Every structure is written in structure tokens, then in C-alpha cells.
């Protein structure tokens, strides 16, 4: 969660890629029918309202996410209202993710996440109210643990995984593209 909202699904220890490498692009689930046009072609994606630019577009009273959360701490009514809608969207998105994937764990991270961490206990409780009662105690939503390095570590892990599972194929591709 940052300038965009992306996602990935690890299943049986491997990153699921889908037919087009788009598996788990959770930022593009529709939250606002007929909402803002998204880069993906859809309207009202979670990314259009829940990313940093999405929040700032909705709040429209400042230019940075720091400024927004400063206004929240000052209990500025427009910022508080925007925060409430943002948290409600997050709650809807996480509920949808839980129902779509039945995951052991949902891991949240990115540049936006540290600002939202203090609301997560409430969000967890709200999502629990919205899923099947018999799995409520199995809902696990946790922050990512790699801090600001998570994108880099994810990219390196992908390369290592390919290098370890199909080294010759990868080296052949590398030397072909290097020419
Ligand atoms: Zn989209």
C-alpha cells in the first residue's frame, strides 16, 4: 500500500502468477462503482481511493500524506471524515480478500501502512464481524516485517527463486538478452 496498491498470493510456498502475471492484483477490486478511472481501465478500484494519491484526491485539502495524518491528529473534520471512509474501504477490501482467498495470513505493508498501523486493531475487529463466524478466530492480518526494504527484498527473492529452481534456463535467458 503506497502510491499504488499491489498484492501477491503465496500458495503452497510459491508465488501464484496467474495466466498473465496478474494474480492477486488486489488493488483493482472495485470498491466504488462508477468511481475514478483507474490506470487498469476499471473504475473505482481500491487503488483509486485507498492509495496515497487516492486518499489525497479524496481529502483535497493538502499535498502530502504526512499533512493528511497531521490534520487527522489535529481532528480536522474533513481529514477525519476522509480517514473514516479510507478505513471502511480497507475493511471492505480485506473482507473481500479473506473471502476470495481463504488465507492463513494477510500481510500488509508499503509506505502508507505505518500511518494505518494504529487503526489495525479496530480494522481486524471490524473485518471479523463480516466473515463466516466459524473462521473469525482464524483471521490473521499482520504488518510486513521488512520495513522500507520490502520491495527490494521481494524482487531479489523472485530472482533467487528462479535461479534456484531453473538455473540453466535463467542463465540462457540472461545471456540471450545480454547480447
Ligand atoms: Zn484498477
Automatic annotation (TrEMBL):
<protein>
    <submittedName>
        <fullName>ROK family protein</fullName>
    </submittedName>
</protein>
<comment type="similarity">
    <text>Belongs to the ROK (NagC/XylR) family.</text>
</comment>
<dbReference type="InterPro" id="IPR000600">
    <property type="entry name" value="ROK"/>
</dbReference>
<dbReference type="InterPro" id="IPR043129">
    <property type="entry name" value="ATPase_NBD"/>
</dbReference>
<dbReference type="Pfam" id="PF00480">
    <property type="entry name" value="ROK"/>
</dbReference>
Amino acid at each position: 500500500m503506497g502510491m499504488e496498491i499491489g498484492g501477491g498470493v503465496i500458495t503452497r510456498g510459491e508465488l501464484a502468477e496467474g495466466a498473465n502475471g496478474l494474480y492477486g492484483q488486489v488493488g483493482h477490486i472495485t470498491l466504488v462503482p462508477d468511481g475514478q478511472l483507474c490506470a487498469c481501465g476499471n473504475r473505482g478500484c481500491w487503488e483509486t481511493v485507498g492509495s496515497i494519491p487516492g486518499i489525497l484526491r479524496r481529502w483535497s485539502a493538502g499535498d502530502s500524506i504526512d499533512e493528511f495524518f497531521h490534520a487527522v491528529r489535529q481532528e480536522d473534520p474533513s481529514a477525519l471524515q476522509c480517514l473514516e471512509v479510507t478505513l471502511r474501504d480497507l475493511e471492505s477490501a480485506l473482507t473481500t480478500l479473506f473471502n476470495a482467498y481463504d488465507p492463513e495470513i494477510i500481510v500488509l505493508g508499503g509506505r502508507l501502512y505505518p500511518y494505518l498501523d494504529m487503526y489495525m486493531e479496530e480494522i481486524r475487529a471490524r473485518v471479523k464481524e463480516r466473515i463466516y463466524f466459524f473462521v473469525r478466530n482464524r483471521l490473521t492480518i499482520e504488518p510486513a516485517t521488512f520495513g522500507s526494504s520490502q520491495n527490494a527484498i521481494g524482487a531479489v527473492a523472485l530472482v533467487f527463486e528462479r535461479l534456484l529452481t531453473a538455473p540453466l534456463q535463467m542463465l540462457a535467458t540472461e545471456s540471450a538478452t545480454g547480447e
